[in-house]
Amino acid sequence: MKNFLAVLLFFPLAGFAQTTPADPKAAGVADSVIMAMGGKQNWDNVHFLTWNFFGRRTLWWDKWTGDVRIEIPAKNLVILTNINTHQGHVYRNKSELLQPDSILYFMDRGYKIWANDSYWLIMPFKLKDPGVNLSYKGIVNDSLGNSCYLVELTFNKVGVTPENKYHIYVNRKNYQVTWWDYFAKSTDEKPSVSNPWKNYQPFGNILLSDDRGESEGKISAIAVSDQMPPHFFDRL
């Protein structure tokens, strides 16, 4: 596997979305990361993904339909939305909110929560999404002392915050992301947030990291499944 992944650094895989502008080395690193995480086919085959975002809220995501269920216990709030249609239902204290402006607000809020929380968990699988610009920045050591390929991510008018920038550190031995730096603006020289990506574990046929270091803690209750209860995404 190691030798195969090394080849990918210079010959990007077919079938992935191409990044803009094209950077063959960066695209090759991204392909190697995706392969190390289980590969595009195994990621596409994931039907339902569940996780708890640092103890704040739990999300259930139907990757095939775009349905998302978000439970926020501290606010007695449940948001049922679809990230493609932005339609759904909202419950506070087990009572459905029926005001159109409230529904509109929470559909938008639910989408933004999903976009943020999922990126903290599955970013390595999104390195080659349409609109993601990848730039290869050379070989550096991450803050844990690992020798890494450094890849810069910027965005071409996609996502909730297209002005962001990330530096992704990819371990040269196993092609796992070991660290990331988050920059609020692509012009910033110093990151606003820096976190490790540790404790990779298999979930079904993919690998995911649940540990973001002492400053954030762990993403818990991660699960990959093929079935969910009936109406789980459309009613309380």
Largest sheet: 7 strands, antiparallel
Number of strands: 14
Distance between the termini: 45 Å
Count of helical segments? 4
Q: Which class of secondary structure composition applies to the elements? A: alpha+beta
Which ranges are low-confidence, i.e. pLDDT below 50, for 5 or more consecutive residues?
1-16
**Residue-averaged pLDDT:** 91
* Strands ordered across the widest β-sheet: 6-5-4-3-2-1-14
Shape: globular
* C-alpha Rg (nearest Å): 18 Å
| Count of domains | 2
What amount of the residues lies in strands? 35-45%
Helix content: 10-25%
Order of helices and strands: HHHEEEEEEHEEEEEEEE
Q: What are the salient characteristics of this protein?
A:
236 residues; alpha+beta; Arylsulfatase, C-terminal domain; 2 domains; five-stranded antiparallel beta sheet; globular
How would you sum up this structure in a few lines?
The chain is of the alpha+beta class.
Description of the molecule:
- The protein has a 7-stranded antiparallel β-sheet, covered by helices on one side. It has a 5-stranded antiparallel β-sheet with strand order 7-8-9-10-11, covered by helices on one side. It has a two-stranded antiparallel sheet with strand order 12-13.
- The chain has helices at about 1-10, 25-35, 40-45, 100-120, and strands at about 50-55, 55-60, 65-70, 75-80, 90, 95, 130-140, 145-155, 165-170, 175-185, 195, 200-205, 205-210, 220-225.
- A hairpin with a 4-residue loop joins β2 and β3.
- It is α+β, with helices and mostly antiparallel strands and about 240 residues long.
- α1 (about 1-10) packs antiparallel against α2.
- Helices cover about 20% and strands about 35% of the residues.
- Residues about 1-15 have low confidence and may be disordered.
- It starts with a helix and ends in an 11-residue tail after the last strand.
- It is built from 4 helices and 14 strands.
- It folds into 2 domains: about 1-45 and about 130-220, no CATH class; about 45-120, Arylsulfatase, C-terminal domain (2-Layer Sandwich).
